[in-house]
Design brief:
alpha+beta; 3-stranded antiparallel sheet; globular; Hypothetical upf0131 protein ytfp; 15 strands; 6-stranded antiparallel sheet
Length: 292
């Protein structure tokens, strides 16, 4: 909650403004209390179609926890109290169809925010794939494309493909880069050649290796395609000292960020350094580990 505003992670039909507005008008609810903050990702979750919606005439989207390497793209919104009540009604909270769930989503700069989302209750989950209508799937697809978010997770869910790892890119900015001391690990875990990439942040000199933290500097790095996503991230988590999102003792946190390449804006996994509030570390003004 921020000043009476609830942060909400939307991943389904609410990515389409017209769908939300039309529902509000039919139910005589105000629609302008849903304010978009921006695109984001929910790590460790997967989208599923295992609930039949009579209103949609087919499957409606749900998300479930699914562990390392999975991630669901969506949008972070702010809702005032009136809109929150309307959203509860739209999602069928009062009749037990969906229920509220607190999650932590990754913003484009890699920071995390706690938000509210909705998951299908156990009594409405079917032990089978429920095909969504083309119209419903298009609402989600167009909403993702509008925010330049990939549609791979949606396609995997529609095809009932499991396991689904829609994000297979890795942004590195230190010892995992080409020519650096840990590049052999990168070569083993990734396929293809390195591509030049940049991210927004600040680069700190930690001695034998750097650490990227949040900031307005341009950090120079490389992006690779992960080979086997789960296995690769498992190894990288160990290298970077990331012990899971529930741990307070990780050296780095694995997150998802927006990067810039010659091909334009892309999304990638990366590792952000967990800087202690009283830790004094020198900044690398160039934003380039090789030019420190």
């Amino acid at each position: 909650m921020e000043g009476g505003t609830t942060l909400y992670f939307g991943y389904g039909s609410n990515l389409d403004w017209s769908d939300w507005k039309n529902w509000c008008e039919r139910k005589n609810e105000p629609h302008d209390g849903l304010v978009e903050v921006g695109p984001c990702w929910l790590p460790d979750f997967t989208m599923k179609f295992h609930y039949f919606s009579r209103g949609r005439g087919g499957g409606a989207a749900d998300i479930i926890e699914n562990g390392r390497g999975h991630a669901v793209p969506g949008v972070l919104f702010g809702m005032d109290p009136v809109t929150l009540n309307a959203m509860d009604r739209k999602e069928g909270v009062g009749v037990g169809i969906y229920e509220r769930k607190k999650v932590r989503v990754a913003l484009p700069d890699g920071t995390f925010r706690e938000a509210l989302t909705y998951c299908v209750t156990k009594q409405y989950v079917q032990d089978r794939f429920v095909q969504p209508t083309e119209h419903y799937a298009h609402l989600i697809e167009s909403g993702l494309e509008k925010r330049k978010l990939p549609i791979g997770e949606l396609k995997n869910a529609i095809e009932d493909f499991s396991p689904s790892f829609p994000l297979d890119k890795l942004f590195v900015y230190g010892t995992l880069m080409e020519g650096e001391c840990r590049h052999s690990s990168t070569k083993q875990l990734c396929n293809g050649e390195a591509r030049v990439a940049t991210a927004q942040g600040e680069l700190l000199d930690l001695g034998d290796f750097p650490g990227m933290v949040h900031g307005n500097q341009t950090v120079q790095g490389e992006v690779y395609n992960l080979d086997q996503v789960y296995e690769a991230l498992q190894t990288l988590d160990s290298i970077e000292g990331f012990y899971g999102y529930d741990s307070n003792h990780s050296l780095y946190t694995r997150t998802i960020i927006e990067i810039e390449t010659e091909q334009g804006t892309e999304w990638a996994w990366t590792y952000i350094y967990n800087l202690d509030s009283d830790e004094q570390v020198q900044k690398i003004d160039s934003g380039d580990w090789r030019n420190r």
